[in-house]
Amino acid sequence: MTSYEEAETEETVTCLHMTFYHPCQEDKMMFRCLNFCKREQLRVDETAKFGRDSSICRYNLIDSRVSRIQFSLQFYRKLNSSEFCFEIKNMSKKTKLIVDRTELGYLNKIDLPWKCIICFGDYQILTEMQEGESMDYFETYLCLAQMPFLQERCLPSLQPVPETGIFPSLFLSQDESPKEMDENES
């Protein structure tokens, strides 16, 4: 037998890919303590904490508006299943955490969807889980985004557009109000 035949089967490790965005990153460098583009391995009994207190949080955000512990991620296996998941818990008393469209108050927690966007303040974090088999470790892989994932969208006017393409309401003074006219009137 050769050495590769005798070697133990290599286990894949669940990896949580997280891509961070903040509009002031270039000026304020709030992500400077994060290790980007490098996999970090954590034991399954470790809770991954994100916040500004470096003595408590493994993932440190340099911003006085971020809570000492902003949120935590706990790796676990679902009951009667081989499926692994992450649970996200809001640890901030002052800031709500939004996971996709679900708003979490202080100490609220939910299962992290396999792909979602986490928001608090001006922070946006795109997360995506890559499944693995290991029951001893999980990994994180952090990236930095140059563009936001979510943008405020200007909703188009719900008024019908006249054939002329000009909205009469734009030319009305504050004293004038629209007047109803019959189609046959000029």
UniProtKB/TrEMBL annotation:
Keywords: Cytoplasm, Immunity, Innate immunity
Family: Belongs to the TIFA family.
GO cellular component, one term: cytoplasm
Keyword Cytoplasm found: yes
Domain FHA stretches: 49-121
Name the UniProt record assigns to this protein: TRAF-interacting protein with FHA domain-containing protein A
Compartments where located: Cytoplasm
Pfam (any one): FHA
GO biological process: innate immune response; positive regulation of canonical NF-kappaB signal transduction
Lineage: superkingdom: Eukaryota
Protein's UniProt keywords contain Cytoplasm: yes
Species name: Struthio camelus australis
PANTHER family assigned to the protein according to its UniProt record, in alphabetical order: TRAF-INTERACTING PROTEIN WITH FHA DOMAIN-CONTAINING PROTEIN A, TRAF-INTERACTING PROTEIN WITH FHA DOMAIN-CONTAINING PROTEIN A FAMILY MEMBER
Signal peptide (from-to): none
